[in-house]
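Checklist before submission:
- one chain only
- standard amino acids only
- sequence pasted in full

Submission:
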Amino acid sequence: MPSRIRIGKLHEYDARDSTLMINGHLIQGFSENSMFTIQDDQDSATLKIDPQGAPTKSRNNSTSGTMTVPLDETSPSNALLLKYFNEDTVFPVDLITSTAHVSTTYAFITKRANLEGQRAASDRSWNIKLINYEETATIDYEE
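Returned file contents:
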């Protein structure tokens, strides 16, 4: 008889637990379906294999990433981010969710978010470059 896999504690994600602070300001008025996306700009390592099959792994020490923050067109946070873009401001970012904490001291907006006129309010997606950002888990996966 096959053994049963036992599942530990039930973990829960709640979007209301997510807090995005940019330069000490709470960001609010997110898109209907998404609040943020963060992805590394490069792989953490590259692999070279010589003609005889010997591999060499090279560590990439780049710790930059891109955060995309889709805001509803009516969000008051659009004015703040547009101000930072226009002034070419470098600012800290602190994101806390039910499962992760992402932070950096140095971030900046790479381009102005698109503005669209539509039948209903549209979204404005801001691309924020994160320099030397760190991520830690806020949930204990060892249980």
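Reviewer check: The two ends are 26 Å apart (CA to CA).
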